[in-house]
Amino acid sequence: MAGPVDVQGRMPTGETHGARRRFLPEVQALRAVAVALVVIYHLEPNMLPGGFIGVDVFFVISGFLITGHMLREVEQTGKLSLTRFWAGRARRILPASLVVIAATAVLATAVVPVTEWANLQRQALASVFYVQNWVLAADAVDYLAADNVATPFQHFWSLAVEEQFYLLWPIVVVGAALAVRRARGDRTRALRRVVLVLFGLIVAASFVWSVREVSAGDPAAYFATTTRLWELGVGGLLAVVLRHTDRFALARSALALAGLATITVGSFLLTAASPFPGVAALVPVLGAVAIIAAGRTVGAGSLTWLVDRSWVQWLGNVSYSLYLWHFPIIACFEVWADRSPRPLESLGLLALSLLLAQLSYVWVERPVRLGRWARPNGRMLVAAAAAMAVTAGISVTPMIRAEILEREWRQAAAGVVVGPGSGFGAEAIAGKHVPAFVTQVPVIVPNLEDVHKELSRTYAACASGAASNVTPTCEFGDPEGTKTIAVVGDSHVRMFASPIVSAAKEQGWRVVTYLHNSCTFSLDPRKMRFAEACLQANADTLDALRADPADIVVTGIYGDSEFDSPSGGVDGLVRMWDALHEAGSRVVVLKDAPRPRMDVLECVADHAKDPEDCAVSRKEAFSDPGHATVAKAARLAADVEVLDLTDRFCGPQRCMPVVGNVMVYRDHNHITDTYARSLHPYIADALWPTTGTLAQGAEASRDG
């Protein structure tokens, strides 16, 4: 989203018959179009599936206006004051954004469940310091963070990109000004030539990098400054070369209409599934360039009918504040209502967003921007830093509340220590009775605020990403063990690694892991983006297990796995398991854990004393296609054992999210490491039925 480089769309470099155009209503109208696209997309994405390209339009506008502003200063004074420039950006951008961040931090804690408070605070602070895009980029490639719920601060990623652009771009202009300081002849022309070359190199490099990263399927590419810089840079190039004129009215009108049509069509044809930004981002970028380059057009066939509407100009004025306010309002409503807004509710949320945008524009943006006391100088930078610090302090409100709850939780959870024989977690299940709590105080471990961390980091370091064509190996257990158990598969096998390793240690076995996130250990391709890389990695892993067979191979698949093969994945699993059996390994296939409701963490946070309300039926929990695939493949394979732990999660009718004071799930498809550890005796008894933990307990009971 473009910050208000100049709220009135003033353009310092263009000329009309020698007279500089100080106001560009067409740019203001373009702002209105851009913010409308984004807001409609966030409210009703099905209505405008590509509305997110409004952000790209804003990028072009920002690059265009800010570059023109800098060039005028250099042409008039021979230099560019970085202090004055950055102070001016702080004066225009920070007041409204910091007010929204502070207000959202306070409001969000009232509606966002405790499970999201840590992420809420992290993104609030990232928004204050304009690094939100890099936080989201890191989350996009971090398997443990990929399921993080969108926070009310997520839209600040585009502002972060712009602010980082504002740090780099003036430095390039300063370098160009220094380079032409001693140039002979027309220094203005020399300056523009140097700037054109420097900007062109940056834009070209960023565009090539963007195309490369998007083509490679890097999810971080959407948020990274390096893949977005070219969009702002194109606006900067336009500011360098553009000269407005009143001539060629018909051609310019056609150009403006073509630009608007391009953006409009793109907002309908592009979707969230489109590879973006990359080449696809040329649609909004070139559309915006066309409208700006056309300038103000009049007469039949022009955009005057749109540009000169008072409400369009007003929407352009408040576009920055509207962008800031609309997303927190929508995000908080969705959390509060536990669903997306319905059409009438969307209209209400839109009205509220417009009202807050107008109030913010009148009472925050304009007073600071126009006030004589807020001059763009060193004092303004100091004031901006202080305001950011205060807002950061307000943003830690969730953590202050979380610390209070943390102390209360620790006191209640002091006696809940999960381990073999503890009676907590899976061990609390007795026959058909699956109790949520076995203590008088209904305390849940781990702390709901930290439950998202509950996929063991020990084994995370031993797992490769989905795009990799190599599966790493790690060793655990007894390094001198004469027998070996191999743990092979995706994250749904990895989440059982802790109890398998601890059980193996008891038996004196060595454990070797072959873990590959999102990569089902099969010879058939799973329906996913990196299927070929996964198949290559699986073939190499199979070769390794044939060359050095494990005594036991424990594997399994994600219950929601779908395969791109005539047999629906059955044949690939059978061939894989038979190959392991022929190599001399005993093959044990873990049945995946039951699938909870999508919002299981939020639901339990809201029903911490009665989590049974968040249970799902057995039928629903095992409705994913992968369960049937495993069952059929197991019947056809030569010799496979299926380890079915369903009764350690579910009663006769329902599968529970909390069992024996332990939170079962860390997200909507993985179990917590704490609950996995409570499965130790049942896994041990299945793998070593005569010497496992339960068998040993039974032996001790008989001896007694």
Distance between the termini: 73 Å
Structural class: alpha/beta
pLDDT averaged residue by residue: 88
Proportion in β-strands: 5-15%
How many DSSP-defined strands? 13
Spatial shape? elongated
Note poorly predicted spans.
5-19, 698-704
Rg, nearest Å: 30 Å
Can you walk me through this structure?
- The chain is elongated, with a radius of gyration of 30 Å.
- With 704 residues, the chain is of the alpha/beta class.
- A hairpin with a 2-residue loop joins strand 1 and strand 2 (19-20).
- It contains 27 helices and 13 strands.
- Helix 3 runs antiparallel to helix 4, helix 4 (117-128) runs antiparallel to helix 16 (397-413) and helix 9 (249-269) runs antiparallel to helix 10 (282-294).
Describe the secondary-structure layout.
Layout: E1 15-16, E2 19-20, H1 25-43, H2 54-77, H3 82-111, H4 117-128, H5 132-141, H6 156-179, H7 187-215, H8 225-241, H9 249-269, H10 282-294, H11 304-307, H12 310-317, H13 319-337, H14 343-370, H15 378-395, H16 397-413, H17 457-460, E3 463-464, E4 473-477, E5 484-489, H18 491-494, H19 497-507, E6 510-516, H20 531-547, E7 552-556, H21 570-582, E8 586-590, H22 600-606, E9 616-617, H23 618-621, H24 625-636, E10 640-643, E11 654-655, E12 658-659, E13 662-663, H25 673-678, H26 680-687, H27 693-703
Parallel strand pairs: 3-6, 5-6, 5-7, 7-8, 8-10
Antiparallel strand pairs: 1-2, 4-6, 9-11, 12-13
